[in-house]
Design goal:
The protein is mainly alpha-helical and 277 residues long. α2 packs antiparallel against α4 and α5 runs antiparallel to α6. It is globular and about 70 Å long. The N terminus and C terminus are likely disordered.
Length: 277
């Protein structure tokens, strides 16, 4: 079969996924990264991506809202009933928890896992958007839903479940292990975004390899970025948080780009390429 590329196909981003061994080799030989350079690059890219980041935050809020309503409506109704009767029952809260059936609790936990997986899908798609903007390509709002497909979502749910199973025990040990694992975990989404065919085990192990290799600079950028976002959010009475929170993804993108890079084939070099079956 002869593969023919049209004029507009030359500018379509084609992602050629590297193998796990290639990734490990790049991690082992990764060059040192400059803190200030990555932070400045993140600011410059944020100037281009703030709208897509805001939309991502907005979509996440919309996804979470129904579960917030389900969780808080019983408490709100209890407070309203007690205010109407003029009596405050200190045991009413226990009664509400007793009324929650095991099925309700299980259903709620499954819902939370699905919402967290949807958020991870949005995050992974946002990394692809960052790359497109970084390379001067146009993006669309629909690009945020790139991974909202059956072929990806099952793996995203499993990856989210593994993330919870890693983070939960770490949090139980006085949070100190959680501080360590938060860095490798932060690379799960971007590794999946550009290596969708990898297994969950490959994504997790590669996240820990890259996280361990670049732990200090990643954690430092986390702290500086978080403090800056908190200060600016406080100054703007919290409203700025919706726009500024996605900035946290930018240092991760540039650390990945600097340490691993991208191996896409140049479309200009594929003109006239033939596939013979």
């Amino acid at each position: 079969m002869l593969k023919i590329y049209g004029f507009f196909d030359l500018y379509q981003p084609k992602i050629q996924e590297m193998t796990v061994s290639e990734f490990q080799s790049k991690v082992a030989n990764a060059k040192d990264l400059d803190f200030g350079t990555i932070f400045n690059q993140s600011i410059e890219l944020f100037k281009k991506s703030w709208l897509q980041g805001f939309l991502m935050q907005l979509f996440v809020f919309i996804l979470i809202l129904p579960f917030m309503i389900i969780l808080y409506v019983p408490f709100v109704l209890m407070i309203i009933n007690q205010s109407e009767s003029g009596q405050l029952d200190p045991n009413a809260m226990d009664g509400i928890f007793t009324g929650f059936s095991m099925f309700y609790i299980l259903l709620f936990l499954v819902g939370v896992l699905v919402i967290a997986a949807l958020q991870m899908a949005l995050n992974a798609a946002f990394y692809r958007i960052l790359r497109s903007l970084d390379e001067g390509r146009e993006v669309k709002t629909s690009d945020l839903f790139y991974f909202m497909k059956a072929q990806y979502f099952g793996k995203i749910v499993l990856l989210m479940l593994v993330t919870v199973l890693i983070a939960l025990p770490a949090a139980l040990f006085f949070y100190l292990p959680l501080i360590y694992v938060m860095v490798p975990i932060s690379f799960f989404s971007i590794i999946f975004a550009f290596n969708t065919e990898w297994s969950i085990g490959d994504i997790v192990s590669s996240g820990f390899r890259l996280g361990n290799k670049k732990w200090l600079i990643t954690f430092g950028l986390f702290v500086v970025s978080y403090v800056a976002i908190m200060v600016l959010s406080f100054v703007t009475c919290g409203l700025g948080g919706l726009f500024l929170a996605p900035f946290m993804f930018h240092p991760i993108y540039f650390i990945y780009k600097g340490a691993i890079g991208f191996d896409d084939l140049s479309e200009l070099n594929r003109i006239g390429e033939k596939e013979v079956f």
